[in-house]
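Please produce the structure of this protein holding adenine.
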Amino acid sequence: MRFDLVTLFPAIFDGYLTQSLLEKAIKKGLVEIHRHDMRDWAADTPHRKVDDRPFGGGPGMLLQVDVTVPCVEDVERMAQTPSRKILLTPQGKRFDQPMAEDLAISDRVMLLCGRYEGFDQRVIDILEPEEVSIGDFVLNGGEVAAMTIIDGVVRLLPGVLGDEQSNWDDSFSRGNRLLEFPQYTRPREFRGHGVPEVLLSGNHEAIATWRSEQSLEKTERRRADLLDRPQ
Ligand code: ADE
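Below is the modeled complex.
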């Protein structure tokens, strides 16, 4: 799977792409991540300007259509496979596990990271990207949101996690829309806190029953809204 990141701050991704799971997935050739600095598409002026003030007034600066659209079109042409284009914005559709699962079966995804007050509306009208938000809060830009999406998607790609069952069992995944049951490891006792007896019983059926009861009870208590959603 290929990701193209369009951003004004490609270096923000340095640490993330060179650590742990992502680094391994890249080395194994399971995912390719290409970063593109939007400023490379700016007019050839000393400041390589990419933003300007909104017509009609108002605070902040907008990313310009005449920089963003040619940039995205050129990036699109950098590979044969057509890309799903996602523009990160707090106004977008909320990112969730079904969306991550849907993206994980795409061959190529382009993530457009906004900064400042966002993009000129014509960027959206012309490119018709999917607008996606990672939650009801405002970040300084789309980069952290893009990392969130990559993180959620890459772990679903076959061969990335050691244990393929685990992403199927995770909360919110297609196999399980409930919150996770509590888990314990050694020591058996710590500061007077023990481990539920059933987990030490060796009775697999009883353990499975206890775990699903715990999941259901926790979901009812914390996130009853999940129980109303279609499976
Ligand atoms: N850019 C700024 N805030 C954002 C959010 N909540 N989700 C996605 N992109 C953003």
